[in-house]
Protein backbone atom coordinates (compact mmCIF):
# COMPACT_ATOMS: atom_id res chain seq x y z
CA UNK A 1 0.00 0.00 0.00
CA UNK A 2 1.27 3.52 -0.82
CA UNK A 3 0.95 6.48 1.54
CA UNK A 4 1.50 10.09 0.58
CA UNK A 5 3.29 12.07 3.30
CA UNK A 6 3.99 15.80 3.13
CA UNK A 7 7.17 16.72 4.99
CA UNK A 8 7.62 20.14 6.57
CA UNK A 9 11.20 20.30 7.88
CA UNK A 10 10.82 24.01 8.75
CA UNK A 11 13.51 25.97 10.59
CA UNK A 12 16.25 25.49 13.18
CA UNK A 13 16.59 21.84 14.22
CA UNK A 14 13.47 20.93 12.18
CA UNK A 15 15.36 19.59 9.13
CA UNK A 16 17.76 17.57 11.32
CA UNK A 17 15.05 15.76 13.27
CA UNK A 18 12.83 15.21 10.20
CA UNK A 19 15.78 13.59 8.41
CA UNK A 20 16.07 10.95 11.14
CA UNK A 21 12.31 10.29 11.21
CA UNK A 22 12.31 9.81 7.42
CA UNK A 23 15.18 7.30 7.66
CA UNK A 24 13.20 5.37 10.28
CA UNK A 25 10.06 5.43 8.10
CA UNK A 26 12.02 4.28 5.06
CA UNK A 27 13.39 1.36 7.06
CA UNK A 28 9.86 0.45 8.20
CA UNK A 29 8.60 0.76 4.61
CA UNK A 30 11.34 -1.47 3.19
CA UNK A 31 10.86 -4.09 5.87
CA UNK A 32 7.06 -4.26 5.98
CA UNK A 33 6.53 -3.65 2.24
CA UNK A 34 4.84 -0.23 2.47
CA UNK A 35 5.51 2.57 0.07
CA UNK A 36 5.88 5.97 1.71
CA UNK A 37 5.97 8.77 -0.88
CA UNK A 38 7.41 11.95 0.59
CA UNK A 39 6.91 15.47 -0.69
CA UNK A 40 8.92 18.19 1.04
CA UNK A 41 7.47 21.71 1.23
CA UNK A 42 8.52 25.08 2.63
CA UNK A 43 6.66 26.41 5.68
CA UNK A 44 7.84 28.85 8.36
CA UNK A 45 10.78 31.24 8.29
CA UNK A 46 12.44 29.43 5.37
CA UNK A 47 9.22 29.84 3.36
CA UNK A 48 9.06 33.54 4.23
CA UNK A 49 12.65 34.00 3.05
CA UNK A 50 11.95 32.18 -0.22
CA UNK A 51 8.46 33.50 -1.05
CA UNK A 52 7.54 36.36 1.33
CA UNK A 53 4.89 34.19 3.02
CA UNK A 54 5.27 31.75 5.93
CA UNK A 55 2.62 29.40 4.46
CA UNK A 56 2.72 29.50 0.64
CA UNK A 57 -0.43 28.27 -1.12
CA UNK A 58 1.38 25.35 -2.80
CA UNK A 59 2.65 24.09 0.58
CA UNK A 60 -0.88 24.04 1.98
CA UNK A 61 -2.14 22.38 -1.21
CA UNK A 62 0.43 19.60 -0.84
CA UNK A 63 -0.67 19.01 2.78
CA UNK A 64 -4.34 18.94 1.77
CA UNK A 65 -3.65 16.33 -0.92
CA UNK A 66 -1.59 14.04 1.31
CA UNK A 67 -2.59 11.25 3.70
CA UNK A 68 -0.63 12.82 6.59
CA UNK A 69 1.83 15.61 7.35
CA UNK A 70 5.04 15.31 9.36
CA UNK A 71 6.36 18.63 10.66
CA UNK A 72 9.70 19.46 12.33
CA UNK A 73 9.46 22.96 13.80
CA UNK A 74 9.24 26.55 12.61
CA UNK A 75 10.44 29.91 13.87
CA UNK A 76 13.55 31.68 15.07
CA UNK A 77 14.86 35.05 16.17
CA UNK A 78 15.56 36.10 12.60
CA UNK A 79 11.80 36.42 11.95
CA UNK A 80 10.69 37.67 15.39
CA UNK A 81 10.43 41.30 14.23
CA UNK A 82 7.95 40.55 11.41
CA UNK A 83 4.29 41.55 11.69
CA UNK A 84 2.10 38.82 13.25
CA UNK A 85 0.64 37.41 10.02
CA UNK A 86 4.09 37.00 8.42
CA UNK A 87 5.74 35.30 11.39
CA UNK A 88 6.54 31.59 11.05
CA UNK A 89 4.17 30.77 13.93
CA UNK A 90 1.28 32.22 11.88
CA UNK A 91 1.88 29.33 9.46
CA UNK A 92 1.02 26.85 12.21
CA UNK A 93 -2.33 28.53 12.83
CA UNK A 94 -2.88 28.63 9.04
CA UNK A 95 -2.12 24.91 8.73
CA UNK A 96 -4.52 24.05 11.55
CA UNK A 97 -7.32 26.11 9.99
CA UNK A 98 -6.53 25.03 6.41
CA UNK A 99 -6.42 21.36 7.34
CA UNK A 100 -9.39 21.45 9.75
CA UNK A 101 -7.29 20.19 12.67
CA UNK A 102 -9.38 20.80 15.76
CA UNK A 103 -7.77 18.41 18.23
CA UNK A 104 -4.23 18.12 19.50
CA UNK A 105 -3.22 14.90 21.20
CA UNK A 106 -0.16 14.97 23.39
CA UNK A 107 0.80 11.85 25.25
CA UNK A 108 2.97 12.77 28.25
CA UNK A 109 4.75 9.55 29.11
CA UNK A 110 7.67 9.20 31.49
CA UNK A 111 9.96 6.43 30.21
CA UNK A 112 11.13 4.18 33.03
CA UNK A 113 14.78 4.70 32.03
CA UNK A 114 14.41 8.50 32.11
CA UNK A 115 13.11 8.69 35.67
CA UNK A 116 16.25 10.61 36.61
CA UNK A 117 15.35 13.39 34.18
CA UNK A 118 12.01 13.96 35.93
CA UNK A 119 12.18 16.92 38.33
CA UNK A 120 9.54 15.40 40.64
CA UNK A 121 10.36 13.23 43.69
CA UNK A 122 10.38 9.50 42.98
CA UNK A 123 7.50 8.87 45.44
CA UNK A 124 5.33 11.24 43.36
CA UNK A 125 6.33 9.60 40.08
CA UNK A 126 5.76 6.09 41.42
CA UNK A 127 5.67 3.55 38.60
CA UNK A 128 5.61 6.25 35.94
CA UNK A 129 3.40 8.84 34.33
CA UNK A 130 1.10 8.31 31.36
CA UNK A 131 -1.26 11.20 30.62
CA UNK A 132 -2.99 11.94 27.34
CA UNK A 133 -3.68 15.65 26.94
CA UNK A 134 -6.39 16.51 24.43
CA UNK A 135 -6.25 20.19 23.54
CA UNK A 136 -8.85 22.04 21.47
CA UNK A 137 -6.94 23.57 18.58
CA UNK A 138 -9.18 25.60 16.29
CA UNK A 139 -11.21 27.78 18.62
CA UNK A 140 -10.95 29.88 21.74
CA UNK A 141 -8.85 32.95 22.32
CA UNK A 142 -6.20 32.20 19.68
CA UNK A 143 -8.80 32.45 16.93
CA UNK A 144 -11.31 34.84 18.52
CA UNK A 145 -11.90 38.47 17.64
CA UNK A 146 -8.84 40.57 18.45
CA UNK A 147 -7.88 44.18 18.12
CA UNK A 148 -6.93 47.48 19.67
CA UNK A 149 -9.16 50.33 20.78
CA UNK A 150 -9.00 53.55 22.70
CA UNK A 151 -11.43 54.06 25.52
CA UNK A 152 -12.52 57.41 26.86
CA UNK A 153 -10.48 57.10 29.99
CA UNK A 154 -6.91 58.05 30.83
CA UNK A 155 -5.55 54.48 30.64
CA UNK A 156 -4.41 54.71 27.00
CA UNK A 157 -4.81 52.21 24.18
CA UNK A 158 -6.38 48.84 24.99
CA UNK A 159 -5.87 45.46 23.29
CA UNK A 160 -8.34 42.59 23.39
CA UNK A 161 -8.58 38.89 22.44
CA UNK A 162 -11.93 37.16 22.73
CA UNK A 163 -12.39 33.63 24.13
CA UNK A 164 -15.45 32.07 22.50
CA UNK A 165 -16.61 28.45 22.20
CA UNK A 166 -19.70 27.03 20.53
CA UNK A 167 -21.52 23.88 21.60
CA UNK A 168 -20.40 22.13 18.40
CA UNK A 169 -16.74 22.96 18.96
CA UNK A 170 -16.81 21.63 22.51
CA UNK A 171 -18.79 18.57 21.54
CA UNK A 172 -16.37 17.32 18.87
CA UNK A 173 -13.30 17.69 21.10
CA UNK A 174 -15.19 16.23 24.06
CA UNK A 175 -16.23 13.14 22.12
CA UNK A 176 -12.66 12.60 20.96
CA UNK A 177 -11.47 12.73 24.57
CA UNK A 178 -14.09 10.21 25.72
CA UNK A 179 -13.21 7.89 22.81
CA UNK A 180 -9.53 8.09 23.84
CA UNK A 181 -10.46 7.30 27.44
CA UNK A 182 -12.30 4.15 26.31
CA UNK A 183 -8.97 2.84 24.96
CA UNK A 184 -7.15 3.79 28.18
CA UNK A 185 -8.09 3.98 31.87
CA UNK A 186 -11.61 5.35 31.30
CA UNK A 187 -11.26 8.65 33.07
CA UNK A 188 -11.65 12.14 31.59
CA UNK A 189 -10.64 15.28 33.46
CA UNK A 190 -12.15 18.35 31.83
CA UNK A 191 -10.20 21.48 32.70
CA UNK A 192 -11.89 24.89 32.63
CA UNK A 193 -12.35 28.12 34.58
CA UNK A 194 -16.10 27.86 35.04
CA UNK A 195 -16.02 29.87 38.26
CA UNK A 196 -15.09 32.96 36.22
CA UNK A 197 -15.60 32.47 32.46
CA UNK A 198 -18.94 32.12 30.66
CA UNK A 199 -17.22 30.18 27.84
CA UNK A 200 -16.03 27.70 30.49
CA UNK A 201 -19.54 27.31 31.86
CA UNK A 202 -20.75 26.32 28.39
CA UNK A 203 -17.72 24.02 28.01
CA UNK A 204 -18.56 22.28 31.28
CA UNK A 205 -22.27 21.82 30.52
CA UNK A 206 -21.45 20.24 27.11
CA UNK A 207 -18.96 17.85 28.73
CA UNK A 208 -21.65 16.78 31.22
CA UNK A 209 -24.05 16.08 28.33
CA UNK A 210 -21.47 14.03 26.37
CA UNK A 211 -20.63 11.99 29.46
CA UNK A 212 -24.17 10.57 29.40
CA UNK A 213 -23.22 8.68 26.21
CA UNK A 214 -20.16 7.17 27.89
CA UNK A 215 -21.37 5.56 31.14
CA UNK A 216 -18.13 3.49 31.34
CA UNK A 217 -16.02 6.65 31.56
CA UNK A 218 -15.68 8.74 34.72
CA UNK A 219 -15.83 12.49 34.12
CA UNK A 220 -14.35 14.96 36.56
CA UNK A 221 -14.02 18.73 36.30
CA UNK A 222 -11.05 20.74 37.45
CA UNK A 223 -10.32 24.48 37.41
CA UNK A 224 -7.22 25.29 35.38
CA UNK A 225 -5.30 26.80 38.31
CA UNK A 226 -5.87 23.63 40.32
CA UNK A 227 -4.93 21.46 37.31
CA UNK A 228 -1.59 23.28 37.01
CA UNK A 229 -0.96 22.45 40.67
CA UNK A 230 -2.22 18.86 40.53
CA UNK A 231 0.06 18.04 37.58
CA UNK A 232 2.99 18.63 39.92
CA UNK A 233 1.41 17.37 43.14
CA UNK A 234 -0.08 14.12 41.85
CA UNK A 235 0.27 13.62 38.07
CA UNK A 236 -0.69 9.96 38.33
CA UNK A 237 -4.34 10.89 39.01
CA UNK A 238 -4.76 11.88 35.32
CA UNK A 239 -5.68 9.64 32.42
CA UNK A 240 -7.19 11.81 29.64
CA UNK A 241 -7.14 15.56 30.28
CA UNK A 242 -9.26 17.63 27.86
CA UNK A 243 -9.16 21.39 27.72
CA UNK A 244 -9.34 24.59 25.67
CA UNK A 245 -6.79 25.91 23.23
CA UNK A 246 -4.95 28.27 25.58
CA UNK A 247 -5.20 26.20 28.77
CA UNK A 248 -4.03 23.17 26.77
CA UNK A 249 -1.09 25.09 25.36
CA UNK A 250 0.16 25.85 28.86
CA UNK A 251 -0.72 22.60 30.64
CA UNK A 252 0.76 20.39 27.93
CA UNK A 253 4.11 22.17 28.22
CA UNK A 254 3.98 21.74 31.99
CA UNK A 255 3.21 18.03 31.55
CA UNK A 256 6.11 17.70 29.10
CA UNK A 257 8.55 19.03 31.67
CA UNK A 258 7.52 16.56 34.34
CA UNK A 259 8.16 13.75 31.89
CA UNK A 260 11.81 14.63 31.41
CA UNK A 261 12.66 16.42 28.20
CA UNK A 262 10.85 18.43 25.62
CA UNK A 263 12.88 16.48 23.05
CA UNK A 264 11.04 13.24 23.83
CA UNK A 265 7.38 14.05 23.26
CA UNK A 266 5.38 13.59 20.06
CA UNK A 267 1.98 15.03 19.18
CA UNK A 268 -0.83 14.55 16.70
CA UNK A 269 -3.24 17.16 15.39
CA UNK A 270 -6.44 15.61 14.08
CA UNK A 271 -9.56 16.65 12.25
CA UNK A 272 -12.30 14.62 10.62
CA UNK A 273 -11.40 11.17 9.27
CA UNK A 274 -7.93 9.65 9.35
CA UNK A 275 -5.89 12.64 8.22
CA UNK A 276 -3.49 14.09 10.76
CA UNK A 277 -0.50 16.37 11.19
CA UNK A 278 2.24 14.96 13.38
CA UNK A 279 4.98 16.95 15.05
CA UNK A 280 7.28 17.00 18.05
CA UNK A 281 6.06 19.35 20.77
CA UNK A 282 9.32 21.29 20.87
CA UNK A 283 10.18 24.34 18.82
CA UNK A 284 13.02 25.00 16.41
CA UNK A 285 15.66 25.22 19.18
CA UNK A 286 17.86 27.78 17.38
CA UNK A 287 20.42 27.54 20.22
CA UNK A 288 21.44 24.03 19.12
CA UNK A 289 20.53 24.06 15.41
CA UNK A 290 23.08 22.58 13.02
CA UNK A 291 25.24 21.11 15.79
CA UNK A 292 24.07 17.47 15.75
CA UNK A 293 22.76 17.97 19.30
CA UNK A 294 18.99 17.80 18.76
CA UNK A 295 17.09 14.85 20.16
CA UNK A 296 15.21 13.28 17.21
CA UNK A 297 13.09 10.97 19.41
CA UNK A 298 10.02 13.26 19.65
CA UNK A 299 9.87 13.43 15.85
CA UNK A 300 10.49 9.70 15.42
CA UNK A 301 7.69 8.97 17.93
CA UNK A 302 5.47 11.44 16.02
CA UNK A 303 6.08 9.32 12.91
CA UNK A 304 5.01 6.25 14.95
CA UNK A 305 1.78 8.05 15.96
CA UNK A 306 1.18 8.80 12.28
CA UNK A 307 1.52 5.11 11.37
CA UNK A 308 -0.93 4.13 14.14
CA UNK A 309 -3.59 6.85 13.84
CA UNK A 310 -3.62 7.83 10.15
CA UNK A 311 -2.49 4.56 8.52
CA UNK A 312 -3.75 1.94 11.02
CA UNK A 313 -0.25 0.37 11.10
CA UNK A 314 -0.24 -0.60 14.78
CA UNK A 315 2.57 -3.20 14.62
CA UNK A 316 4.86 -0.87 12.72
CA UNK A 317 4.18 1.94 15.23
CA UNK A 318 4.94 -0.39 18.14
CA UNK A 319 8.15 -1.51 16.45
CA UNK A 320 9.42 2.06 16.42
CA UNK A 321 8.31 2.78 20.01
CA UNK A 322 9.92 -0.38 21.33
CA UNK A 323 13.15 0.39 19.46
CA UNK A 324 13.25 3.81 21.18
CA UNK A 325 12.75 2.17 24.56
CA UNK A 326 15.54 -0.36 23.86
CA UNK A 327 17.98 2.38 22.86
CA UNK A 328 17.20 4.34 26.04
CA UNK A 329 17.57 1.18 28.13
CA UNK A 330 20.93 0.68 26.41
CA UNK A 331 22.01 3.95 28.03
CA UNK A 332 22.28 6.07 24.86
CA UNK A 333 21.40 9.73 25.35
CA UNK A 334 21.37 12.98 23.38
CA UNK A 335 22.67 15.96 25.43
CA UNK A 336 19.19 17.10 26.59
CA UNK A 337 18.55 13.82 28.43
CA UNK A 338 22.15 12.98 29.36
CA UNK A 339 22.87 11.73 32.87
CA UNK A 340 25.83 10.15 34.69
CA UNK A 341 26.99 6.80 33.36
CA UNK A 342 25.15 7.12 30.03
CA UNK A 343 26.63 7.25 26.52
CA UNK A 344 26.39 10.62 24.78
CA UNK A 345 25.33 10.50 21.12
CA UNK A 346 24.35 13.07 18.47
CA UNK A 347 21.19 13.41 16.39
CA UNK A 348 22.28 11.19 13.50
CA UNK A 349 23.77 8.51 15.75
CA UNK A 350 20.53 8.37 17.77
CA UNK A 351 18.70 7.78 14.47
CA UNK A 352 21.13 4.99 13.56
CA UNK A 353 20.71 3.31 16.95
CA UNK A 354 16.91 3.34 16.70
CA UNK A 355 17.03 1.85 13.19
CA UNK A 356 19.43 -0.87 14.41
CA UNK A 357 17.20 -1.57 17.43
CA UNK A 358 14.16 -2.35 15.29
CA UNK A 359 13.99 -6.11 15.48
CA UNK A 360 11.61 -6.94 12.60
CA UNK A 361 10.88 -10.44 13.82
P1 LIG B 1 12.19 25.35 21.85
O1 LIG B 1 11.31 24.19 22.10
O2 LIG B 1 12.65 25.54 20.46
O3 LIG B 1 13.47 25.27 22.80
C1 LIG B 1 13.40 25.31 24.23
C2 LIG B 1 14.64 24.65 24.82
O4 LIG B 1 14.56 23.23 24.62
C3 LIG B 1 15.95 25.07 24.14
O5 LIG B 1 16.96 25.13 25.10
C4 LIG B 1 16.24 23.97 23.15
O6 LIG B 1 17.61 23.79 22.86
C5 LIG B 1 15.66 22.75 23.86
N1 LIG B 1 15.15 21.78 22.89
C6 LIG B 1 14.02 21.87 22.16
N2 LIG B 1 13.88 20.80 21.36
C7 LIG B 1 14.94 20.02 21.59
C8 LIG B 1 15.35 18.77 21.06
N3 LIG B 1 14.67 18.09 20.13
N4 LIG B 1 16.51 18.23 21.53
C9 LIG B 1 17.23 18.88 22.46
N5 LIG B 1 16.89 20.05 23.02
C10 LIG B 1 15.74 20.61 22.58
O7 LIG B 1 11.39 26.65 22.35
P2 LIG B 1 11.76 28.19 22.24
O8 LIG B 1 13.23 28.38 22.46
O9 LIG B 1 10.80 28.88 23.09
O10 LIG B 1 11.41 28.59 20.74
C11 LIG B 1 12.36 28.64 19.68
C12 LIG B 1 11.59 28.94 18.40
O11 LIG B 1 10.70 27.85 18.09
C13 LIG B 1 10.73 30.19 18.48
O12 LIG B 1 10.81 30.87 17.26
C14 LIG B 1 9.34 29.64 18.69
O13 LIG B 1 8.33 30.49 18.23
C15 LIG B 1 9.39 28.36 17.87
N6 LIG B 1 8.43 27.33 18.27
C16 LIG B 1 7.93 26.57 17.26
C17 LIG B 1 7.07 25.53 17.56
C18 LIG B 1 6.57 24.68 16.43
O14 LIG B 1 7.10 24.75 15.34
N7 LIG B 1 5.59 23.82 16.65
C19 LIG B 1 6.73 25.25 18.89
C20 LIG B 1 7.29 26.04 19.90
C21 LIG B 1 8.14 27.08 19.58
UniProtKB/TrEMBL annotation:
Domain of life: Bacteria
Enzyme class (EC, first level): oxidoreductase
Protein family membership: Belongs to the isocitrate and isopropylmalate dehydrogenases family. LeuB type 1 subfamily.
Subunit structure comment from the entry: Homodimer.
Cofactor(s) required for function per UniProt: Mg(2+); Mn(2+)
Annotated binding of Mg(2+), by residue: 225, 249, 253
Domain Isopropylmalate dehydrogenase-like: from-to ranges: 4-354
Entries under Gene3D superfamilies matching the protein: Isopropylmalate Dehydrogenase (3.40.718.10)
One of the record's GO cellular component terms: cytosol
Signal sequence range: none
PANTHER family named among the record's database cross-references: 3-ISOPROPYLMALATE DEHYDROGENASE
Name listed for the protein in its UniProt record: 3-isopropylmalate dehydrogenase
HAMAP family listed in its UniProt record: LeuB_type1
Record's subcellular location: Cytoplasm
UniProt source species: Alkaliphilus metalliredigens (strain QYMF)
Gene Ontology biological process terms in this record: L-leucine biosynthetic process
Amino acid sequence: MAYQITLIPGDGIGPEVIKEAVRVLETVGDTFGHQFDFEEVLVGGCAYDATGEPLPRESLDSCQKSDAVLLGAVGGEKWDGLPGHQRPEAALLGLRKGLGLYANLRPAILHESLKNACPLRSDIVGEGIDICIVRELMGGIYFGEKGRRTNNDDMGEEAFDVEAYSVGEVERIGRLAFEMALKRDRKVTSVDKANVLESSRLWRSVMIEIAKDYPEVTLEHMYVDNAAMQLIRNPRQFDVLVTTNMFGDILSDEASMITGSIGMLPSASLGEGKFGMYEPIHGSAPDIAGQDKANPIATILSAAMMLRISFDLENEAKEIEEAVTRVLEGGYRTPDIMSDGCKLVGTAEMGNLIIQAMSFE
